Amino acid sequence: MDTRTRLITNLPHWRYLIQGYFLTNWVMIKNSGQLLNIAAFESSRGFAGSLLGKILTLSLQVLVSRLFGPTYYGLFITSLIVCQLSQVVASLGLQKGGVRFFAIAYEKQQYKSLLDITGLSLILPLVLGFVMSGFVYLISPFLSSQVFNNPEMTTVLQRASLAIPFFALLRIGAELSRGFMTNRYSVIIENLFFPFVHIIFFLLLYLLKFGFSSVIDSFILANFLSAIMMLILLLSQIKRVLKEDWSMELVFNKLFFTSKWQEIVLYSLPLMPTALTHIGFNYVDIIMLNIYVEPSKVGEFAAPARLGFFFANLFPSITLIFAPLIAGQHGKNNMENINLLFKAMIRWICYMALPVLVFFLIASKEIMLIFGKEFTNDGPIVLTILMIGHIFEFISSGTGIILTMTGHQYKELINYLGSILLNILLNIILIPSYGLKGAAVATTLSRFIITVIRLYVVFHIFRIQPFTKKLSVPFGTTFIFYLGCYLVTYYGGYTFHSFINISIATICSSIIILIIISSGFEKEDHEIIKIYFDKIRKIGFRKKAFTETGVN
User: Fold this and answer.
1) Rounded distance between C-alpha atoms, residue 366 and residue 482, angstroms
2) Confidence at residue 67, expressed as pLDDT on a 0 to 100 scale
3) Dihedral of CA 395/399/404/405: which sign?
4) Are 142 and 65 in contact (CB under 8 A)?
5) Is 109 left (phi over 0), alpha (psi -120 to 50) or beta?
6) Cα 383 to Cα 367: distance, rounded to the nearest angstrom
7) Alpha helices in 92-110 (DSSP H)
8) What is the tens place of the pLDDT at every residue in 383-439?
């Protein structure tokens, strides 16, 4: 039996990992039949909820951009970034650390401990959230005048700072709810209820003539209401497992006088810098633009940047499927299988991204019209540059998985920090001369360079690389389609109607999909896809497994 056949026929691993990629590390192998059903159901629900939530969030941002224009849209996005960074600091890494201890206690049926962990994970960030809120409120004048060079931002930041404690409470509550091996409540509240209520409050306040403050005030109200709802649902989950042991005295004592704070905090604290680094990398360009350009330009850049993030998060994370497999094969010191998995991982990422990429590249102007005509000056070219950068990011993230899953996580951390510093440096160099295009090039170039470095490091250590000949056809076709449209439009002098341009983009995207289906997949790809869909058909979303395992 050759290596590929051994890899494909390792069905327990493939079925469990493919269908369980949205579940976190606490899912145990025991009761694997029932857990496979749970994994498949939660995966589909989580992805559907996440996708719908991102569409709602993007819809809100489109409303803000069209009603208030680039300047105020830029203020809104910048205030969101400040709030997001602040809530991460207030959370102290408990989004991940707290849920680890919560899930372990649930798995061991130590249900009373759930209240201890919940109390620490919610109350401490809530208190620190109010501290961070006051801190941001006080330094807002300094940030506005000395950093962002926009005095008008003072009021926006001060109002937005009121949302920080509830923002932290919502995020941690959603993570803890997932500790019950279900994402039902986190999807309902975090992905659906929060953006929906934000839109409703915004429209209501806008109709009541609150002006731009309706954007920030609705953000505060949505966070407050969603956090309260998340807390109520989380406590209902705990009450369900405690049953007759539940009492208000027990809840009060455990929530406010927890005995496990030291172990949980010490575990969680090191996770906070990682979360800050991740957010910082995603928003370096927008932060730097606030320093160098006028507010309206920040808004013009933020719109294609948000579309780029939507593209980057549109697909399930393929790396979560392959990461445990790679770790397992490394434990067996089987580099031949790691090489096959590496190639398959990058191939799947590219196959999912390329059809969407070619559509965005060809119809970039029409896509930017969603935000308004003011966003079509530099927006299309910025979107094009950033979208290309996200392709490098996909390849880079897959390469990073090889390092982290094979004991080279510190090399990966250095790469990650280096990419942020490189991005900052390139922004400093390029923004003063090239404005929004310079920021887009800086972000894409930093992603390209870090991708090359990661590929080199992996090749230097393991002598493997992820590219196959079959990738060249869809990549080459994508390049030819975009180059042809670019030459016809910019050098041929032809200007197509928006409907025709969108039609061309759709046709090109469809051709890429047909090329991938007809000749792009390797033998093991077809086998894995067949296994996945066969299992999904057999499951039929049976709820019996959920009842038997006590999932809420």
Assistant:
1) 15
2) 92
3) positive
4) no
5) left
6) 9
7) 94-107
8) 999 999 988 888 887 788 788 777 776 777 788 788 888 999 999 999 999 999 999
